[in-house]
Amino acid sequence: MDDVISRGCLSGRPFKGVGIFVKKSLATVIKLVKTEKRYIIVQVGQTVFINVYLPSTSTVCRDDEFVDCLASIVNDIADLHYVDTGIVFGGDMNVDLSVSGDLCYSLLHFALGLKFVYEKLPPDSKTFRVESTGVSSLIDHFAVSQSIRYDTIR
């Protein structure tokens, strides 16, 4: 990978994975909690930010990897103090929550206590689109703790 990076600027996500951009002024107050192949967790003050890239339909043993990833995240944040300030959980979840299924149940069960923020999106929003076939879906999602939801502070 170092060889590829040394050749110039990369575009897209050639090595998959996730990342979080941090404003320089926050560098002294941010804590890297955990970084894994499919997620990264950082804490700013008492607020926890989780960015995920969950397995796609082409992944071998997708269901197992999906659930294992969510279980690992729960374990990784278990000892953090975020009750009063909350969690921001989001990313490419590779699942359309409007379609029922085991993965949807796992995700919703994991997100217990978090609320998805769909009301902030325009109607019929799509985050994945294949122009050649016209297929589209909403597979990127954000959920936040009730304590930091916009409508709770209005």
Keywords, please?
154 residues, alpha+beta, Deoxyribonuclease I, Chain A, 6-stranded mixed beta sheet, two-stranded antiparallel sheet, 8 strands
The parts where pLDDT drops under 50 for at least 5 residues are: none
Distance between the termini: 47 Å
The amount of beta strand, in percent, is 25-35%
Write down the Rg: 17 Å
Q: Percentage of helical residues?
A: 10-25%
Strand element count? 8
Main sheet characteristics: 6 strands, mixed
CATH third-level topology:
Deoxyribonuclease I, Chain A
Helical element count?
3
Model description:
- There is one protein chain.
- With about 150 residues, the protein is an alpha+beta fold.
- The chain has one domain: Endonuclease/exonuclease/phosphatase (Deoxyribonuclease I, Chain A).
- Helix content is about 20%, strand content about 25%.
- The chain has 3 helices and 8 strands; from the N terminus they run αβββαβαββββ.
- Strands 1-2-3-4-8-5 form a 6-stranded mixed beta sheet, covered by helices on one side.
- α2 (about 60-75) links the parallel β3 and β4.
- α2 (about 60-75) runs parallel beside α3 (about 100-110).
- The radius of gyration is 17 Å and the shape is globular.
- The mean pLDDT is about 80.
